[in-house]
UniProtKB/TrEMBL annotation, chain A:
This is Metal ABC transporter ATP-binding protein. The keyword Transport applies. Pfam families: ABC_tran (PF00005). Transmembrane segments: none annotated. PROSITE patterns: ABC_TRANSPORTER_1, ABC_TRANSPORTER_2. It comes from the Bacteria. Residues 8-240 form the ABC transporter domain. Signal peptide: none annotated.
UniProtKB/TrEMBL annotation, chain B:
One of its GO terms (biological process) is cellular response to iron ion. It holds the Pfam family ABC-3. This is Metal ABC transporter permease. It comes from Dokdonia sinensis. The chain crosses the membrane at residues 20-39, 71-89, 101-120, 147-165, 186-218, 230-251, 263-285. InterPro entries: ABC_BtuC-like (IPR037294), ABC_TroCD (IPR001626). CDD domains: TM_ABC_iron-siderophores_like.
């Protein structure tokens, strides 16, 4: 892991709905090639942090840099996996079609996806073990399968940085393992992966980097250094005891 | 006029042909764009926009004093667009939910429009009669130039739809994600909304303010039942819309004094009803049939499993057993036994049953398949 290269840099990011701040003055540096969890209680602003980095939500202050340049110029380096519940899965389309949407950004306006894009999408489906379901109407997929399709859509973007909003929510153990293996492969390939995560027990096992968030940033750094009861207590407000296998 | 007379005259009679073409084109464009409204869960937007168009018609008349359709519809377009942007503004700027914003704009604009209409009627101007036809529409007033206008707008809409197909589709499915890919989602959104407003305004003369939203929603809702593909859905919705227009016109022309707009809407409603019941994938009828089928299969499998558990305790799987012992089993009926025999899974002689080789294999693989 090269600690010199900073993949994501967030400065003074503040987001508010009405008057209530959701994120307050966040400074964050994520080094290249880490698999980072963002943890925090409900309403801590975890999803909001990702969405404002990606420009889906407008912050009232602050800036975001991807490899030293403004995010708007670096979009092609960034892929996003939204929460599964954020779309209507009864939409009339197939699994392959959804994955193909990952190629739309590279194509730009008007140009249609061709054989090259289709091939890349099929490969991505293969990677997440969903190839047999490529022509399945998406409403007929299980929750875990839908999550895999979303992951494949991001994989097909072939980005350097991946943002994922609760990819383990409502999926079974098999899917969870399949997903985390893919994330670890991405890290091995030098990609940076940022995941909004809820299950504190699995943080040391899955991730090597962690950010504690509760409106303000509590701490960020390597899991082995900062994933401790002290930071958990500061973030969640109650005395936390997690068996950290270290 | 009989219904058959209508179809024999529709190609030769100028008025009939104009009206039929007009309502067909209108139905097609409404079905097409209505699909977008339905999939974006903005079904009520159409209702709000059509009602919001009414004051525009009245104001256009007050300013120009003419009843020229194009001028009045331009007014409708402007006030429809204003209504739409108010709705969007209310949703983003305040924390009102979209149904509240839609309801507010709908009733406020419609109320204002009605007020202006009654004001106009009190004016000592002989020209004012007939503006209220925009409330329920009057297809009989369609002339060739109106149809041309509809045809042109529909063609432009079709070209834009084909050009930005990919962008429309991804925005409909996942707007946030579309934004992260670098697309200007606001532009795509405004484009879709603009065409929806345009389609509604075009329909005001024929179907009227009050019923216009049904033209938008009914064909799309019907089409959704028949397909799981967006492109097919839009084509189907256009076809359903066009047929509603033609049949509606045919029925109203052959039954004297039936007003065309409501008949078209009712025909579209029949399409919806038929689709809800009879579509193979999502229709109520086939869904219910599948439930029965599954229940029957399950009963059969449970009985087979029960027999299998008895049979496998014997060296010879075809060892005969009394039918009596099945009586205590809840899945068992005479009909299931009959069906098992038909499938050659079980054979019966006298009061005894015995499992066949085939039945044994079937039972063994019952829960092995995915």
């Amino acid at each position: 892991m090269s600690k010199e290269k900073i993949a994501i840099r967030v400065d003074d990011l503040t987001v508010a709905y009405n008057y209530k701040p959701v994120l307050w003055d966040i400074d964050l540096e994520v080094p290249e090639g880490v698999l980072m969890a963002i943890v925090g209680p409900n309403g801590a602003g975890k999803s909001t942090l990702i969405k404002s980095i990606l420009g889906i939500i407008d912050p009232i202050a602050g800036s975001v840099a991807i490899y030293g340049k403004p995010y708007e110029k670096q979009r092609k380096l960034v892929a996003y996996v939204p929460q599964k519940g954020s779309v209507d899965w009864d939409f009339p389309t197939t699994a392959l079609d959804v994955v193909m949407m990952g190629t739309y950004g590279m194509l730009g306006w008007i140009k249609r996806p061709g054989t090259k894009e289709k091939k890349a999408s099929l490969e991505a489906l293969e990677k997440v073990g969903m190839l047999p379901f490529k022509n399945r109407q998406i409403s007929q997929l299980s929750g875990g399968q839908q999550q895999r399709v979303f992951l494949a859509r991001a994989l097909v973007q072939d980005a350097s940085i991946y943002f994922m909003d609760e990819p383990f929510q409502g999926v079974d153990a098999t899917t969870e393992i399949a997903i985390i293996n893919i994330l670890k492969e991405l890290r091995k390939a030098g990609k940076t992966v940022v995941v909004v995560h809820h299950d504190l027990q699995t943080v040391p096992e899955y991730f090597d980097w962690v950010t504690f968030l509760n409106v303000k940033k509590i701490a960020t750094g390597p899991v082995r250094d900062i994933f401790n009861d002290d930071n958990l207590t500061k973030t969640y407000g109650i005395n936390y005891k997690v068996a950290v296998n270290k | 006029m009989e219904l058959s007379d209508y179809f024999s005259q529709v190609f030769s009679d100028y008025t009939l042909r104009t009206i039929t073409l007009g309502t067909a084109i209108l139905g097609a464009i409404c079905g097409m764009l209505g699909s977008f409204a339905v999939l974006r869960k903005q079904s009520l937007l159409g209702d709000a926009i059509s009602h919001a168009a009414l004051p525009g018609i009245a104001i256009a008349f007050l300013i120009t004093g003419t009843k020229d359709t194009n001028v009045l519809l331009l007014g409708a377009l402007v006030s429809g667009l204003i209504g739409t942007f108010w709705i969007r503004g209310m949703i983003t700027k305040t924390h009102l939910k979209s149904d509240t914003a839609l309801g507010l704009v709908l009733s406020l604009f419609f109320g204002f429009g009605m007020l202006l209409l009654t004001y106009i009627q009190k004016q000592p101007n002989a020209n004012q009669a007939g503006l209220d036809k925009y409330l329920f529409g009057q297809a009989a007033t369609l002339v060739e130039s109106d149809v041309w206008l509809m045809a042109i707008v529909t063609s432009v809409c079709l070209v834009v739809l084909l050009l930005f197909w990919k962008e429309f589709k991804i925005l409909l499915f996942d707007a946030d994600y579309t934004k992260t890919l670098g697309f200007n989602t606001r532009f795509i959104d405004v484009l879709i909304t603009f065409f929806i407003v345009l389609a509604i305004v075009l329909g005001l003369q024929t179907v009227g303010v009050v019923l216009m939203s049904a033209m938008l929603l009914a064909p799309a809702a019907a089409a959704r039942q028949w397909t799981n593909k967006l492109s097919v859905m839009i084509v189907l919705a256009a076809i359903f819309g066009a047929f509603s227009g033609v049949f509606g016109t045919a029925i109203s022309a052959s039954q004297n004094n039936l007003s065309t707009g409501p008949v078209i809407v009712l025909v579209a409603g029949v399409f919806v009803l038929f689709s809800f019941v009879f579509s193979p994938g999502r229709g109520i009828l086939f869904k219910q049939l599948r439930v029965y089928q599954n229940r029957r299969d399950l009963k059969l499998q449970k009985t087979l499993q029960f027999m299998f558990d008895i049979a496998r305790t014997h060296e010879d799987i075809s060892h005969p057993h009394a039918i009596r012992i099945l009586n205590n089993f809840q899945g068992y009926t005479k009909a299931t036994l009959q069906e098992l025999i038909e499938k050659d899974w079980v054979s019966v002689s006298g009061q005894n049953w015995s499992m066949t080789e085939k039945g044994y294999d079937a039972a063994q693989n019952l829960y092995n398949k995915n």
